[in-house]
Specification:
single chain, 114 residues, 4-stranded antiparallel sheet, 11 strands
Length: 114
């Protein structure tokens, strides 16, 4: 599956952004989809995942501020990000995992700065 992420940008601390990830194929049956982020010099880190059954898990630093969701009809994964802080600045990637196959989107930059 090919993934196209969008929605990043520059936002002030305390602001919100919504990231989108459009898939080239039907996502309803994809086992797990998720969002990761990476800052220069550090490993890519999982921040939110959602299963095909709708169960969700979050990295502790974003829980309560970020919300992952998906629209199966639109084949789109979302990440609603609220109460953003400079520590959330990173390149954000969407991922799909299905039967051992992993696909990545191209990444979208999120910069939180005043």
């Amino acid at each position: 599956v090919q993934l196209q992420a969008s929605g990043g940008g520059l936002v002030q601390p305390g602001g919100s952004l919504r990231l989108s990830c459009v898939a080239s194929e039907r996502i309803a049956d994809i086992h797990i989809m998720g969002w990761y982020r990476q800052v220069p010099g550090k490993e890519r880190k999982m921040i939110a995942i959602i299963s095909n059954m709708g169960s969700k898990n979050y990295e502790p630093s974003v829980e309560g501020r970020f919300s992952i969701s998906k629209d199966n009809a639109e084949n789109t994964l979302y990440l609603q990000m609220n109460s953003l802080s400079p520590e959330d600045t990173a390149v954000y990637y969407c991922q799909a995992w299905n039967s051992g196959l992993v696909s990545w989107g191209q990444g979208t930059q999120v910069t939180v700065s005043s």
